[in-house]
């Protein structure tokens, strides 16, 4: 049933939206030019149209060190200042990038990549197969990998899991830089989506000599990075933004049409919308309150993502260690309100972890195969709560941890209201910056928090193997049966059997153990200036491509 909500609740924007826009903050505006427009020449004649796009993020750029980063905003920057063996194209398919091609062995286990001729770092040094080996081993090395993403290599590459656990050696990892142009990698089992994985940030190369020389200062400022992608950084401040300019040493530089990308951190959606109206930015995310106003505007459009926003419970937290308390909190809010009234932008109420449209088997999506796992039930939630309180001996005092962007803060208010209405409890909402929120969850210092996950590739495994890692951020979750399902699915070559294992794993994670509680699958509504073309936003993996963009 639809309910009325306050204006503040209606003014929501999408969490971690990488399709938001930004302001020109690099000083260009002082020259009298408009973003993507023309600048008046000294003789009164119109100068050539500037090839500039102005965008923004709604949260800080947390970390540009690919050994330690884990957030989509940082990934968006790194994906455009560097590159892997393959890059996703306009249709989200992997295409040769720093590699000119690959040969795959008949058993599907060995990949032999051949690098392009003449590829260079931004300082002119050659990019070699050894740069990939160094980066991949570093991402798996427990001493250097800090972002919780080692699994995206170690789960697939032979010897990687042992190395990442500290029980194996780098020499036993099946990555061989045979010569400067030939990289050979052997997998544990056939992986149909491996080329898609090579488009992901942790598969990008790094120059060992440069990274070692910079030490702890690596990636803290533009001059402390080397660039292998279509752009390079000229300015960077985590809290305010970054400026990207064309990389003259990029192998495909001639096909990069936009010379500069200005990125600004704008946490308040209303501020970004006003800047867009003023012509200072080229793309802006819309809150639900603005959708009806602009949905008939020719600059209005929508897109979809493979991203689920959800509540993460700490299974060792005070109160949330109790299964019945977690189940009560799962069922005590109505996600359809988020979809129909609050978000109002193409997002869908989530009934499971895996988003709609993600591939399953036999031409059916994973979500269609599984059906609904979690749906609101206030009466059942009350029963679970009372049982949990009885088991604990008292009602727990709960604190919900949320990031400080507009949507997350309003999500906290929404959940706080629902829990008061349906359970009769007062939940405190604790707001932190994304970096502080992540640190607090990494340390296990929380009861439950609002977070999200975007798919790294088009398969349910990109979500479900997260909870086989037993980290505090993932709720300190441990279940041997769940771990076995994930491990077996990674080895299973029969696709139907593999998907059935993942379907069972999702049921255990949500319906049985109540480790997470889904909120919504993200859709986006935004305005974009008509002179900006071919900004590509992927529903999974590296979020955004500036390489293909043009300014008319």
Question: What does this 3D model show about the protein?
Answer:
- By secondary structure, the chain is an alpha+beta fold.
- The protein is built from 18 helices and 23 strands.
- The strands form seven sheets. Strands 11, 12, 13, 16, 17, 18 and 19 form a seven-stranded mixed beta sheet that branches. A four-stranded mixed beta sheet has the order 1-10-9-8, with helices on one face.
- Helix 14 (406-423) links the parallel strand 16 (399-403) and strand 17.
- The longest helix is centred in the last third of the chain and has 18 residues, at 406-423.
- The chain is globular and about 70 Å long.
- The two termini are 46 Å apart.
Give a summary of the structure in a few sentences.
The chain has 552 residues and is an alpha+beta fold.
Number of helices: 18
* Residues in β-strands, percent: 15-25%
Report how far the terminal alpha carbons are from each other.
46 Å
As a whole number of angstroms, the C-alpha radius of gyration is: 24 Å
Mean pLDDT rating? 89
Structural class: alpha+beta
